[in-house]
Structures
1.
Amino acid sequence: MSGDATAPRAELVLDARATLGEGPVWDPDRRLLWWVDILGGVVHGFDPATGSDRAIEIGEAVGAIALRASGGLIVAAAGRIAALDPETGTIEDLATFEPETPARRMNDAKCDPTGALWVGRMALDGAPGLGSLLRLDPDLRLTIVETGLAVPNGMAWSRDGRRMYFIDSMRRQVTEQGFDAATRMVGPGRPLLEFPEDWGLPDGLTIDTEGCLWVAMWDGGCVLRIAPDGRTIDRIDVPGISQASSCTFGGDDLGDLYITTARESFTDDDAAREPNGGGLFRVRPGPRGMSADQFAG
């Protein structure tokens, strides 16, 4: 999978050195990019106007965040889904989980067009079969949508709201499913694209206004643009990075593609080879993204 020499390359905008950067979402009201360091247990708010970054300690692994229509953020932490007031740091639990053996944590999460929050839950070591996909409705009812997963990851919905895209990283594919907004149920899935082993693992994703998916490739050091028919039509390299973890569009015109990265399990040699691992990157690829759906509860 070779890159196009003329394609724009992502540039480092924040040398965050996160252990496992993930879950970026653009907040148009505050004009901030929210993102998380999963293993660091921190929610970050990056201000592109100043280059500053604010860190909010959660106290446990935090898989992802989402915007809340009534204000504030939703945090998918290891043992709970909670509402976070980013101004005060106050956290209010919305759903809690009993301790499990082996231990589990949240991974990626996104809101659907109806305002429900979809969350992946996985074993700490990513063991196959122990992961699940959950849905928290605005009335705070929690539903287990799918079990038997390994590393539930990127999610997105088509512009017309009739299709859901989902990645379980260890399956090495993007799955496309019909989505019924009235019932919030998904139909049987079909592989939209299967990734060869030498491309790395598909991780987080986002969608643009043309219906194309942008998929961060873990151990691939890039973000791929996937057409609605499953063709790979573009590639954005993240220089000096192997663990590209997720991406989203931001900025006032939603034309900036932000890319989170990681330095998970790095040795000293790995850190020397990838000094910007765990940093936040940005590129203007041409297409624009869609506003993030918000939790309606």
2.
Amino acid sequence: METLRIERRGDGTAVLTMDRAEKLNAMSHTFFGELPEAMRMLDEDPEVRACVLTGAGAAFAAGGDIADFHALEGIGDYRRQVKMALEAFLSIERAETVMIAAVNGIAFGGGTEITLACDVAFASQAAQFSFKEITLGLMPGYGLVRGPEVMGRAWTHWMVLSGDVFDADHALRIGLVQHVSSPEDLLDDALALAARIAAHPPMALRMAKRFINRHAPEGLSESIEATAFLMSSPDTRERVAAFVGRRGAAG
């Protein structure tokens, strides 16, 4: 895979790394296609029952690759891309493998959404979370569906509507993550929980996760349509073009 790397550890656990460090692990069209495939590979491996998801380099994931979205044209393209992204996040919830996020740095937009998709989340003290979509005239299509189940409606409103950045301690208080670690201990702490989980009977793990996540797909079809509509609006296109232009000038 181009954007993901799997390391099997031999104790029932694995590490799945988002591997575009030079782009702060921004989520491209390729990434959204490869993530469900990675979930399938983990589920089909009888030696893996729990997996830690993290990011290469200093970031967890800086969100969607805006240049990819900017290249799209027409409501049909937007709808297909949003559907692909939301189904990629949903593949984590649908996976039989227990998924534990280890958020090692910034987790903006899709980075926060993929944190919500995981079954448990650890954060480094250096982690930062935000839904920046509102600043471009967009909304986090998966996050606003999953967010109320994880951290409640009010905090989801705050994050989605403000674009504010939350640090790891704030994320812990609102239930977005369940544990905060030092940067040097983050991966070991997440893997320690993964190993304890992996030691349990696999059928019980699969059934328990499936039951907890049984309502996961609800609301996503409406979110796909609303997000695609926003992506096609002139105001959003103007803001996205300006954002891509600023990045190009900076690079």
3.
Amino acid sequence: MRDARAQLPLKWVRPENIHLSLKFLGDVDEARDSELRKALQRAAGTSGEPRPLTLQIAGFGVFPDYHRPRVVWAGVTPDPGLELLQHGVEQAFAPLGFPTEARAFRPHVTLGRAARDARPGDLTGLEAMLAGTNFDESVTVDEVDLMQSTLQPGGAGPVYQIKYHERLS
């Protein structure tokens, strides 16, 4: 698989940057950090007593489709606890001016993005490569983080900083 990955015009996410997004807030003034922390704390407690979640990561796919792949992802099997947590995040942040997402929550972990200059034909073979790759692992999530991402010049990818985290255990 390594040879096939190297030939495709994809920028792979560095392992330390792999995460599951519950909500994207966009550009937010640092003066709002306190209210964002309180919202995250409320969200983490909306499903009753917070406790760790065990999530299954399995299968691969792309957004929007294999004719024009822009994002390569690993799927996260829907889980009631994760759904409640994500819904709690939506509800806690909506009063702060962050509208609830119109699309259904599709939990996934972004693994890579097509290079800016990649044409759809450049990614021929991606579907077969992903179909021929098996991955099925469980992970335990025991905290939710409020993250700040800062894009780096020259396409170096984002740098993530944890602004606050709330334990689920």
4.
Amino acid sequence: MSGLFDLTGKTAVVTGGSRGIGLMIARGLVQAGASVAVSSRKAEACDEAAAELRGCAAPGQHGQRGQQVWAIPADLSREDECQRLASELAGHTAALHVLVNNAGAIWGAPLLEFPASGWDKVLDLDLKSPFFLTRAFLPLLGEAASADDPARVINIGSIDGLRVPLVPNYSYAAAKAGLHHLTRVLAIELGPQHITVNAVAPGPFESKMMAQTLRAHGDEIAAHAPLGRIGRPDDMAGIAVFLASRASAYVTGAIIPVDGGASAR
């Protein structure tokens, strides 16, 4: 059991890893022993996140057993930038064990006012980007894959892709529902190559994306969940480490809600 959740020697990429849920995931992977590349659009934010992550590396590993943290900024709403991210990481490592597709955007507006730009921005980043990134990283994922311990793709969806959301975020809900199904499609496609594909469907967590909603409706949202609270960083780190580790080697095509039970209502 001591090695079941150990990520020592593994390499991971976390997109949108400079803040919010992405940073929670990156921190958990680093603390479990993985080398991690964080990517987001702003170079300064990437550098700040990487500096923080280096400070929470697994005890006795950083600088001694090869654990690394890299900051690689990229605008992942563009296919060419997805490919560039993969190419740059290939300069640091010969294999990628874990790809976390977390980068995302949200747009809210009433039905009759919802703009085309609100569809394009969200669909480009939340649905198209995970597809292009997975394709771009396939060679590196293949180098890490084995029958006993597959390479992993972890897509970050949302409970808004499992149920009708409480707010008018039409493109976000549609994109996350699409990402959940894309997860299943890719799980079937990539399973024979020893690559698992799973999705996490978070409920409300404290993040910049959720800040305004939580300020206005935080108590109501927390009360709606059977567990009666908002998600905490360890809740997200825990599911990410599980899906990245040998503990989940026989799990693929799953959509896992991490929402305190809210989506079960």
